[in-house]
Fold:
Amino acid sequence: MTKDKIKQAYVEYILEKGTQPESIYAFCKKLKIKEAAFYEEYTSFPQIESEVWKEYFLDTITSAQNEEVYGTYSVREKLLAFFYTWVEVLKQNRSYILKAYEGFQKPIYAKRNVQLSEFKIAFYDYINELVLEARETKEIEQRPIPQLMQRYPDLFWAKTLFILDFWINDTSKSFEKTDTMIEKSVNTAFDLLGHSPLDSLLDLGKFLFQNRRA
Amino acid sequence: MNSQDKIPTSKVARATQFVKAGVKVGGNYIKHYSKKILDPSLSKDELHKDNAADVYETLSNLKGSALKVAQMMSMDKNLLPRAYTDKFAMSQYSAPPLSSPLVIKTFRQYFGKSPSEMFDKFDLKAENAASIGQVHMAHKDGKKLAVKIQYPGVAESISSDLKMARPLAVQLLKLNDAEIDRYFKEVEERLLEESNYDLELKRSIEITNACAHIPDLFFPKYYPEYSSNRILTMDWLEGLHLKEFLATNPSQEVRNKIGQALWDFYDYQMHTLRMIHADPHPGNFLMTNDGRLGILDFGCIKVIPDDYYQNYFALMNPDTLEDDARIQKIFWDLDFLLKEDSAKEQAFFSDIFKQMIRLLGRPFDSHTFDFGAEGYVDEIYKFLDYIANMPELKNSNSARGSQHGLYVNRTYFGLYTILNDLKANIRTTKPDWVTPKHLKA
Structure:
C-alpha cells in the first residue's frame, strides 16, 4: 500500500461517507492493511488532508508553468495565473473541499488550520521567490521598513486563504465572481506594493527632514 | 422630484423629454464624436490608439452596463451632468483590461484549451476595450481574426446596475418611478441580450446571411467553433472608421455609395427582417476607399413589433399627417397622448409631435435626400433642444412614447448623423405604403 493509495482511499471515504473514518484502525481494516503500514506513511488523518492540499498546490504550479507564456509574465501576471489555475484545480475537487472545509476553524484566513500546513510551507517557498523577483523587476517597491517587507509573504498567504473562503461561498455561474475577486485583489495588492504616491510622499518627507533648517 | 398633485398639469412634458432622450441617445455620442474631429487636441490621442476613432474611447474608463446605461441615458452633458458621469467612472467598472492569465483562463474554461493552442497566433494584449468586453487579434490558417471576450460577471451585474442608474434617470428626466419602468425594462432586455454571446452569434450569422445580397456591404464571417457563451470569434475586418475615412478625403461618389449601402442595409432590416442593428455608432462601421461598408457587432438587435412598425412608419409617410383622425389614433396607440391629458394639452402635444414628425420624416418625403445639405441634422438637434426647454414640457412629469421608440429613434438618429457626416446624397428607398402619393404620380 503506497502513500498515494492511502490518500486516495481517504478522499474517497470522505466523499462517500461525508465524515472522517471513525479511527485509523477502522480505516485500515477497510483498506485491508496493517495499522503499522499506515503509520509508515502518515500519523493522522489531518496529515493526509495536509498532503492533499499540498498536492493541489503542486499540480497548480506545474500546470501554470506549462502554459508557454508563463515565462514571459510579469510577477503580477504570474500570481494571477497561479490563482486562476489553483481555483481550476480546486473546482475539480470541490465536493471533497466542501467536506474538508467543514472541519476547518473559521475564518480560515485568521485561524491556523493544521490541514493546510504542508501547503503553507510550499506556498511560502513559492511566494518568497516571486517577491524577490518582483523586487528585481521593481514591481514591488523597496520600502525602508524591513518589518513590513518581511510580512509580504504573510499577506499573500492570507490573500490565498481569503480567495479560498470566497470561492467556497461563491454561488455565481462557473464561479465567475471568484475570478473577478482574484483579478481585482491581485491588482490592488500590486498597486499598493508597487511604487505609489505614498512612496513619493515618504521620499519628499525624508528630503525635507534632511534639509530642515536648524 | 415633482409631487403627485402636479402630475395632471405637467404630465405632458415628461413624455416629450423622454422622446427627446431616446432620440438623442443615438445621436449624441456621435455628435460628440464629430466634435472630436474638430478638436485637434483629441486627434493626437487618435494616433496612438487604433481605435480612438471609436467614441467609446472617451469613455474607456467606464465598463460594464453602467457605460451602456450612461449611453442610453444620453451622453449629452445637458442630460448627464458631469458629476454623474464622474460617479459612473468611479464605479466598480473603472477596471483595467483583463489580465493575460484571466484571458487564458476564460479560454480554458470554455474550450479546455489555451488560445495559443486554438489559434496559430493570439495576441494576449487586447486591441481595444468595449463596454462589456475586449477584443483580441488572432491568426488561424492565414486568416486574421477578431476575438471578443466578455468580462466575467457582466450579465449578472446588469440588473443591479440598472437599479443604480434608476434614481439618476428619475431625477434627470423628471419622471416618476412607476413610469420609468417600461423604459428600463426595455433597456434591461437589450442589455441582457447584448451580454449573451450565444444569441449574438446566432443573430450575427442570421442577419449577415440575410443581408448578403445588398451591394457594397461586407460582413465578418463568424466562427461558432471558436465561440462560446463569453467568447465570440469573427473575421478581422479591414477598413477605416468614419473619422479616419473622412480624413482621406473620399470623393462625393464614394461617400454616396457608402451612404447608400448604409441606407439600404437599414431599409432591408427594418422593412423586411423587422429586426435592426440598433447600435449605429461609428465604431461599428468600417469604410473602404472603393466605397464599401463593413458592419460589425450584432449584439444590440431590436426586434420591431408589428403594431409599432405599422404606426411608426405610417407617421413617416407625409400623407398621414393630412389625415387628422388617423394621426390622433396613432398618437394614442404610441402613447404620445395619455388619457390624463386635457383637451388643451392634447392639442398642444399633437402639434409638437407633428412638427417633430415632419422634421424626422423629411428624408421619406422625396426620392433622394442630401444628408450633406447644410443643417438638417443640426435642425433636428435644435428642435429637440427647443422642445426640451419649453416650460410646459420642463415641468411635465409623465412618460410619453412607446418604449420601442427608444431603440428605433436611437437607430435612426445614429443613421442620420453618420449620413450627415458622410455628406451623402442618396436614394431614400422605402416600401410602397410609406411612400407619399406625390412621389408615386
